[in-house]
Amino acid sequence: MFEPFRKYLSEKVALTDSQLQRIESLAITKHLRRKQFLLQENDVSRHHTFVSNGCLRLFRIDLTGAEHIIKFAPENWWVSDRESLITGQPAKSNIDALEDTDVLQWTKDNFNRLLDEIPSYRDFHDKLIARALEASTNRIYNNISMNAQEKYEKFIKTYPSIFNRVPLHMVASYLGVTRETLTRIRTHAQNQD
Amino acid sequence: MFEPFRKYLSEKVALTDSQLQRIESLAITKHLRRKQFLLQENDVSRHHTFVSNGCLRLFRIDLTGAEHIIKFAPENWWVSDRESLITGQPAKSNIDALEDTDVLQWTKDNFNRLLDEIPSYRDFHDKLIARALEASTNRIYNNISMNAQEKYEKFIKTYPSIFNRVPLHMVASYLGVTRETLTRIRTHAQNQD
DNA sequence: CGATTCTTTGAAAACAGTCAATCTGTGTGG
DNA sequence: CCACACAGATTGACTGTTTTCAAAGAATCG
Question: Is the pLDDT of residue B20 over 70?
Answer without folding.
Answer: yes
